[in-house]
Amino acid sequence: MGPLALPAWLQPRYRKNAYLFIYYLIQFCGHSWIFTNMTVRFFSFGKDSMVDTFYAIGLVMRLCQSVSLLELLHIYVGIESNHLLPRFLQLTERIIILFVVITSQEEVQEKYVVCVLFIFWNLLDMVRYTYSMLSVIGISYAVLTWLSQTLWMPIYPLCVLAEAFAIYQSLPYFESFGTYSTKLPFDLSIYFPYVLKIYLMMLFIGMYFTYSHLYSERRDILGIFPIKKKKM
């Protein structure tokens, strides 16, 4: 007799898909809760809700973004098919802005740009995680596929602009309070506002690289290629 086949739920592919489905579902629920909370608060309190956005949903946002670092591990070990460097750039953008720029400066947390940035992030992630979650279980909708590969085109550049504006607004506070600035041996020092200004330039360089990658990925998935001119 030949070897007995493993039950479906014990097969590596099934376990991988089950894990990814649960991961995407958790992320979808987290970002949906954030977006719904922000929407309800805006219609209830108007512009006043934008000031304390971070206090209301900052903890859940930080949790979702921290858990998203697992995606780098997913790509590295091969359970998620994606390119490591573009995803690394996208995640580090958010981690730096959220934890270094916003969380460390209470004055920045009250800026309108934080609310705008959270809206952009959650719009992208709700669509992306919905698409990924359904793809894992073999469900595909043309409209959702198109949306997941197109929504980022206007929103991602706006995200980068909002991130850059958040850095710009944070600079006076880093200069005043000296947060993260430190003195080193041999009369050397790290002046963190200069580090942020350098990162500000790198942010737009990274945006060009990421945008190019996402566009290539979109072209491959949707089959959109330049139309060749007919020969006369």
UniProtKB/TrEMBL annotation:
Catalyzes the third of the four reactions of the long-chain fatty acids elongation cycle. This endoplasmic reticulum-bound enzymatic process, allows the addition of two carbons to the chain of long- and very long-chain fatty acids/VLCFAs per cycle. This enzyme catalyzes the dehydration of the 3-hydroxyacyl-CoA intermediate into trans-2,3-enoyl-CoA, within each cycle of fatty acid elongation. Thereby, it participates to the production of VLCFAs of different chain lengths that are involved in multiple biological processes as precursors of membrane lipids and lipid mediators. Its EC number is 4.2.1.134. It comes from Pan troglodytes. The lineage of its organism: Eukaryota, Metazoa, Chordata, Craniata, Vertebrata. This is Very-long-chain (3R)-3-hydroxyacyl-CoA dehydratase. GO terms for molecular function: 3-hydroxyacyl-CoA dehydratase activity; enzyme binding; very-long-chain (3R)-3-hydroxyacyl-CoA dehydratase activity. It is a multi-pass membrane protein. Pathway: Lipid metabolism; fatty acid biosynthesis. The keyword Iron-sulfur does not apply. It comes from the Eukaryota. The keyword Nucleus does not apply. Belongs to the very long-chain fatty acids dehydratase HACD family.
